[in-house]
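Supplementary Methods. Inverse-folding protocol.

Structures were first reduced to a discrete structure-token string of length 64. This string, shown here, constituted the complete conditioning input.
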């Protein structure tokens, strides 16, 4: 198993929608598992937010 950390940033609704998409994708992609996600943090001088995700994946299955 591999593990990576991902930072996503954008409008609050977009960040939530993408994070929710990854949660739903876990049900269909057995090689992917969302281990943790942070709360949203505001970006400086912007209405955008950022969120950090930790994802575990089966690198052997995704090697093709």
């Amino acid at each position: 198993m591999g593990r990576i950390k991902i930072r996503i940033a954008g409008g609050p609704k977009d960040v939530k929608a993408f994070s929710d998409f990854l949660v739903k994708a876990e049900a269909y992609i057995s090689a992917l598992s969302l281990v943790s996600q942070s709360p949203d943090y505001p970006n400086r001088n912007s209405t955008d937010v950022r969120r950090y995700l930790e994802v575990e994946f089966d690198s052997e299955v995704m090697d093709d």
